[in-house]
Design brief:
Layout: E1 5-6, E2 12-13, E3 25-28, E4 32-35, E5 45-49, E6 53-57, E7 71-72, E8 75-76, E9 85-86, E10 100-101, E11 106-107, E12 109-112, E13 121-127, E14 133-141, E15 150-156, E16 162-168, E17 173-179, E18 185-190, E19 198-203, E20 209-215, E21 222-230, E22 236-241, E23 244-250, E24 256-261, E25 264-270, E26 276-279, E27 282-286, E28 292-295, E29 300-303, E30 309-314, E31 317-323, E32 329-333, E33 339-344, E34 350-355, E35 360-366, E36 369-375, E37 380-386, E38 392-397, E39 400-406, E40 412-416, E41 422-428, E42 434-438, E43 454-455, E44 462-464, E45 467-470, E46 475-476, E47 505-506, E48 515-516, E49 521-526, E50 529-534, E51 547-551, H1 555-563, H2 640-652
Parallel strand pairs: 6-7, 50-51
Antiparallel strand pairs: 1-2, 3-4, 5-6, 8-9, 10-11, 12-13, 13-14, 14-15, 15-16, 16-17, 17-18, 18-19, 19-20, 20-21, 21-22, 22-23, 23-24, 24-25, 25-26, 26-27, 27-28, 29-30, 30-31, 31-32, 32-33, 33-34, 34-35, 35-36, 36-37, 37-38, 38-39, 39-40, 40-41, 41-42, 43-44, 44-45, 45-46, 47-48, 49-50
Length: 653
């Protein structure tokens, strides 16, 4: 028997009863397990996926293969009618097999092969009684122990907000997190005597981030002092730091139309479909499918039948892009004869990269975040620790650990060393192009740049998971896997990045609804509908099918507030594998206490959302930090991760 919802690391399984005697079980990529047709015997069934190989089942015994194209499931026949309870699920680590707890949708660990052969690598996940992740241990090569274990421990306050984390292993440090009475993160940084970056945050009355300061642990050195102002609807109007003040302007659709200051002075124009017609002195030409086909600098573009970029040519030099049947970029051939090739797992993680010289790098993930790079021999090249989606705290490479500096978008603006000295720094234009670098080693190998995403040095593209983003073009190079919505005209153009609003929106997966950064909005999932509560002075949330926008100061908003209480918060949800800071508390609190904040850049945890409870029946006293919700007949209590998954699917539908 399979329960509907999100399992470990976000793999969704549809609700259905499956009897192994008569049914073939198929894994639908990205959608879980479904019943297709009659099956052979129960004891030894094999199932094929067109793109990733064979799924192997063997009665109630676990099956593990050393082939990177295999996915494995462990089943136990637990019911008298022959139906089964799933004991293991695909997680987001590549080729894993880990135990699964059907009572609360959580996994306790996994095994994977980075290259499909050789020693297995072990990961472990620990939870508290309320399903909050309290520990992660990963990177131990079972047979030889040559990959030292990296451990993370998390602690939470009574409102389930991240209060501290500690790392032990190649990277060793401790961080703490502080919040004000409104639940807004005000400080994050190393505990006394620990290396890292101390960040302080300030907000206005509308809970919009107005200042972000990055300092050395002892406070002696200020690396960044960002100050922000907003227009009446909540768009970022100015951003100031030591280099000066940058001013932004927008049109009626919130598309960025101009930027001036700090060495940048550009204007942008768009057609009715949102295609960028000009950027400074460069003009662009598009076809009827919104595909960029030429620019006046002599560059031309062609596309395949699925709308993915096929060639880019200029001055007789052509770069060729090759895609697989899932519209995933698998190879780039450059004009000088070199190339880069990529491989993916069944749920879209980029798991390896190979260059023209044959060197291969393998990637290990925790949830959506890259946590390790491995050589072909399985040795650790680099490892990364996070406190939220796309919000890395540290990088360990060649025996040295570095600590990340971020701005309000979550963009990496620098790295420091263990002594608190600035090693590398970056400045960006609004679209993510690096305009300046600095520090003692500006060429330090570091994959993360704009909005915390991976920047590929060989291609100059950003890897936004489902798609690749070209910051020079200001758009993705393939179509959005998600369909557009008539209520949001700009979503009908499948190539736009963040609806041409890169200063206020981020798109961490390349396919989800863009995330509004740093403004006061709360979302509640109730009875199949997502209610978005927009704070006074905050930018109105773009309408989405199935979503209502309610001003919390209106009579309707006040009635709604009186009826509902938040349960948990997006930043504390374990669905992504690494908990992040969040806001929680009663919806009847003051307006400023209702908003998620932009305290952690582009993490999902501060994505203008608070994932709240599905309406459920009266229950015993809740766990610490969890408020009771309104009664409703016969509603089971889903896990936090399942509720978050339900919220996302409702928002996107």
């Amino acid at each position: 028997r399979y329960g509907g919802g999100y399992h470990w690391q976000g793999v969704y399984v549809n609700t259905s009863d499956i009897t192994l005697t008569n049914n073939l079980i198929a894994y639908t990529r990205g959608s879980g397990l479904t019943v297709e047709n009659a099956s052979p015997a129960v004891t030894d069934n094999s199932f094929r996926n067109n793109f990733t190989g064979i799924y192997t089942f063997n009665g109630a015994r676990p099956v593990l293969r050393g082939n990177k194209i295999l996915r494995n499931r462990d089943y136990g026949v637990n019911n008298a009618d022959g139906s089964v309870v799933i004991d293991a699920e695909d997680n987001w680590w590549g080729s894993p097999k880990g135990p699964y707890d059907p009572s609360d949708d959580r996994a306790s660990g996994g095994l994977y092969n980075p290259d499909g052969s050789g020693d297995k690598v072990s990961d472990r996940v620990d939870y508290d009684p309320w399903q909050m992740i309290t520990g992660l241990v990963y990177g131990v090569t079972i047979a030889t122990g040559d990959n030292p274990a990296q451990a993370l421990r998390y602690s939470y306050d009574p409102l389930n907000r991240l209060s501290s984390l500690s790392a032990s292993g190649p990277a060793s440090f401790a961080y703490s997190y502080n919040y004000d009475a409104a639940g807004r993160l005000t400080a994050a940084g190393p505990a006394t005597g620990n290396p890292g970056v101390a960040t302080a945050l300030e907000y206005d009355a509308g809970s919009r981030l107005t200042r972000l300061v990055n300092r050395s642990p002892n406070g002696a050195t200020t690396f960044n002092d960002f100050r922000y102002t907003y227009d009446r609807v909540g768009n970022i109007l100015t951003a100031a730091d030591a280099s000066g003040t940058t001013t932004y302007s927008y049109d009626a659709l919130y598309q960025l139309t101009g930027v001036s200051g700090s060495g940048i002075n550009e204007s942008y124009a768009y057609d009715e479909a949102g295609n960028r017609l000009s950027k400074g002195g460069v003009t662009y030409i598009y076809d009827a499918a919104n595909q960029l086909v030429a620019s006046n600098d002599g560059t031309t573009y062609t596309y395949d039948n699925n709308g993915s970029l096929r060639t880019r040519a200029k001055g007789g030099q052509t770069t060729t892009f090759t895609w697989d049947a899932n519209d995933r970029l698998i190879r780039i051939d450059f004009p000088d004869g070199t190339f880069a090739a990529y491989a993916y797992d069944s749920i879209g993680h980029r798991i390896s990269q190979r260059d023209g010289a044959g060197a291969v790098t393998y990637y290990v993930y925790n949830g959506l975040d890259l946590v390790q790079e491995l050589s072909a021999a399985g040795a650790v090249i680099a490892s990364y620790l996070y406190d939220g989606l796309d919000h890395p705290l540290s990088m360990t490479r060649s025996g040295a650990t570095y600590y990340y500096l971020h701005d309000r978008l979550g963009s990496v603006v620098g790295l420091t060393d263990g002594a608190g000295a600035l090693v590398a720094s970056y400045r960006y234009d609004p679209w993510g192009n690096v305009t300046a670098t600095g520090g003692s080693n500006p060429n330090l190998a570091n994959p993360f740049r704009f909005t915390g995403r991976e920047w590929d040095t060989e291609s100059g593209l950003y890897y936004y998971r489902a798609r690749y983003y070209d910051s020079q073009m200001g758009r993705f190079i393939s179509r959005d896997p998600q369909r557009g919505r008539l209520r949001q005209p700009l979503t009908l153009n499948p190539y736009l990045y963040a609806r041409n609003d890169p200063t206020n929106l981020t798109d961490p997966t390349g396919e989800f609804v863009p995330i509004l950064v740093g403004l006061g909005v709360v979302a509640i999932f109730i009875g199949g509908t997502v209610y978005i509560l927009a704070g006074m002075g905050g930018r109105a949330r773009e309408e989405v099918e199935g979503v209502r926008v309610i001003n919390i100061s209106s009579p309707e908003g006040q009635q709604f507030i009186q009826a509902i209480e938040i349960v948990g918060a997006a930043g504390g949800v374990a669905q992504q594998g690494v908990p992040g800071p969040s806001s929680a508390g009663s919806l009847g609190q003051a307006e400023t206490s209702l908003a998620t904040q932009g305290e952690r850049g582009a993490m999902l945890a501060e994505s203008v959302l608070i994932q709240a409870a599905q309406v459920e029946p009266a229950a015993p006293s809740p766990a610490p930090g969890v408020s009771a919700a309104c009664p409703a007949p016969n509603q089971p209590r889903p896990s936090l991760s399942e509720r978050f998954g339900q919220w996302l699917y409702t928002l996107l539908d």
